[in-house]
Amino acid sequence: MSTAIGLSTPVLAPLLPISGTFALPFSAYFTLLSYRVVHYRLRDKQYLGDNSSKDGDIKNELYLATRCHQNFIENVPLGLTIAAFAELNGGNRRVLTAALSALLTFRILHVELGLMNGTGIGRPIGYWGTFGTIASLGVYAAYLVKGYWGL
Questions:
Q1: What DSSP state is assigned to residue 75?
Q2: How far is CA 26 from the centre of its chain?
Q3: Range from 77-86, 96-105, 111-120 carrying the lowest mean pLDDT
Q4: Which 3 state secondary structure label does DSSP give 56?
Q5: Using CA atoms, how far apart are residues 59 and 119, in angstroms rounded to an integer?
Q6: How far apart are CA 49 and CA 27, in angstroms?
Q7: Contact by Cβ (8 Å): 121, 114
Q8: Residues with Cβ < 8 Å from 112, sequence gap 6 or more?
Q9: What is the DSSP letter of 146?
Q10: Which residues contact 54 (CB under 8 A, 6 or more apart)?
Q11: Mean pLDDT across the chain, nearest whole number?
């Protein structure tokens, strides 16, 4: 399917509509996490590093905000990339929508009900949910191309 732009220039339909749709909520939450880090840096006048204490103080808000931001960066790009692979190879839109919705939910649980509260219940739920979602997306993406390998 193609559409015309301008006089007669054909353009492909969106190639990654599901991944593209999830760009907004993932980037909005990433922006919130980044803002928190900057907020605590300015408040604490700690412009470099995270002022982490050696004794593992779970009340150090700058350290917690930094870890939340880093954990998001460590997991979400991989999940989105694998989802995009699956989408490009004909993945079911409902499956991919459910998986990316779950990934976003688990990342929010990990931070808001987990790390920001020290050791809240959201931390293990978010971790294991993210782990399971990314692993499942990987299996699904590989399943979609099994015919390429003669399986």
A1: H
A2: 6
A3: 111-120
A4: coil
A5: 11
A6: 23
A7: yes
A8: 122
A9: G
A10: none
A11: 89
The number of residues in the chain equals: 151
The two three-digit tokens of residue 47, written as one number: 């412009």
Which residues have a Cβ under 8 Å from the Cβ of 130 and sit 6 or more positions away?
75, 79, 103, 106, 107, 110
- 137 vs 90: CA distance, rounded Å: 13
Question: Is 4's pLDDT higher than 60?
Answer: no
Q: Cα–Cα–Cα angle for 104, 95, 32, nearest 5°? A: 15
Contact 82, 97 (CB under 8 A): no
Q: Are 8 and 83 in contact (CB under 8 A)?
A: no
Both tokens assigned to 8: 């007669």
- The pTM for the full model equals 0.85
